[in-house]
Each structure stands twice: as C-alpha cells, then as structure tokens.
Amino acid sequence: MVFFNTNVSLYNRFILRYVILLLTLIILSGSFGFSLAKGKGFEGGFPEGSGLGNYRIGNLGKKSKPDQEIQYDQSEEKSSIMVNQEIQFDQRKEKSFNNQKASEDSESSKIRFRGLSGTYTSDFQEATSSTGTIIWDKLGIGQSVFKLKTSISGDTYDLENTLIEISYTFGDEFTLTLGGRSVTTGKLTITSSDSEIFISSNVEGSGYFSILGVEFGIFEILAGFQYTSYVFTEIKTESTSAYWGSFEDSGGLYVTGIGLAF
Fold it and tell me: How far apart are CA 213 and CA 221, in angstroms?
C-alpha cells in the first residue's frame, strides 16, 4: 500500500507541472502576439527608452507618388518622317514630270530641214536622186527628183520623175524616218537605134524610203535608202504613126545628206 500511494503522489505532481507549463506558454504567446500586432502598424512609434526613436528617418506612414517618366512619342516622329518622305517623293515626281514634259515639248517643237542626194553609175546607166524635206512635229513632207539615163539594145532612155514624200520621224538626237513616196509627174524620151524619138509624160509609180539621222548640235548627218517603181505608157513619136508600148522600171538608191534641227 505504501508503494501505491507513492506512485499516486508522483503522478499528481507531474500533472500539476504540466498544467503550470501549459498556462505559462499560453500567457507568453498572448503577450508576444499583442506586442507584434502593436509594432507592425508603427502607430505608437518605438517603445520609450528603447533609444530607437532617435534614429527614425522620414515619415514611414506617408506615401509619395513616383515621378512620372517622360515618354518619348515615337509615333509623332515616325509620322513626321513619313510626311517628309512623301513631300520629297512628290517633289522628285513633279521634277521628273516637268523634265519629261520639257523633253517632249522640245522634241515636238523641233523643225528639221533636210537635203539628201544619191548617185549610181555603171557602164550603161546613170541614176541620180535629190531630195528636200521639211519635218515639223515628227511629220514630214518632201519632194524628190529622180533622173535616169540608160542604154538597152542600142536604144537610149532618158527620164526624169518628180515624187512627193510623206514621212514620220522617231526619236530626237538619234532619229529614224520612215515614209512613202508617189510619182506625180515625169517625162520619158527614148531615142531608138535608128535615131527615132519617142516621148511620154504619162507616168505613175510609188515607193518607200527610210533615213537614219544623228544630231551634232543643230546639224544632222543623214543616210538612207529610197526605192521606186514606175511605168510610162502612151509612148509616141511625132514623125510617124509608130508608138512604143510602155516602159516599166524599178530600183533602189542609197542617199546621204545633212540637215538642220531647231
């Protein structure tokens, strides 16, 4: 029985100590939580006598707004650059248009005076051509005189044709002129082997030509080719009732010349 009472007494003292320790922990934890809650808000400042109040810097309860940063508006600069580029492009376009217009006006306002000639000579024939042309605004009109003297089977043929030419000129400093020609008047004289003379002025014919030109200042150097086909009919003689049926011929001739361009 004494052993049992001793154990009961030890158990009661253990329970008492545990209760006292638990109460002490509860009291301490409540006091710490109150102090923490009071210090977190900084409402009462630092505790008196702590010596920390002398080192307080600034007003911890006052909030200040940060200075607003000055932002650089890049869209305005970009818009300004685009406007400047558009103005420069319009100026270049207008300048190019003015130059092109001035060049076109210069080309269209040019007046050209041209003179060309060509000669072909062989053992039995001689052919010559002389041409005068005026060109204005690329359109040209001219006149040519073609002469031929030839001998066939003892008969001599001597003729002269006048032709009207219409042309169109491409280019400015380097030119290409293309045109057509038509025989307007002509005269043919045939002297036969027995010295009988036949004459005709009834002629018709046509042809074409092309001329290349290069300008040197106001002067032009010209070279070209002329082709003509023609036929004389009603060839008669005055001395007798004999007549010559017809005379038909065609051929080309190279010509060169000079011109003036204003």
Answer: 6
Cβ-contact 227, 204 below 8 angstroms: no
User: What's the sign of the alpha-carbon dihedral 105, 106, 111, 112?
Assistant: negative
Q: What is the pTM of this model?
A: 0.60
DSSP codes of every residue in 63-92: --PPPPP----HHHHHHHHHHHHHHHHHHH
The per-residue pLDDT for range 1-40, each reduced to its tens digit, is: 444 444 545 556 666 666 676 666 666 655 544 444 444 4
In CATH, 111-261 is 2.40.160.20: yes
The number of angstroms, rounded, from the C-alpha of 46 to the middle of its chain's C-alpha atoms is: 84
Q: Distance (Å, rounded) from C-alpha 199 to C-alpha 188?
A: 6
3-state secondary structure of 161: strand
CA-CA-CA-CA torsion for 167, 170, 175, 178, nearest 10 degrees?
Answer: -30
Q: Where are the domains of the chain?
A: 1-34, 111-261
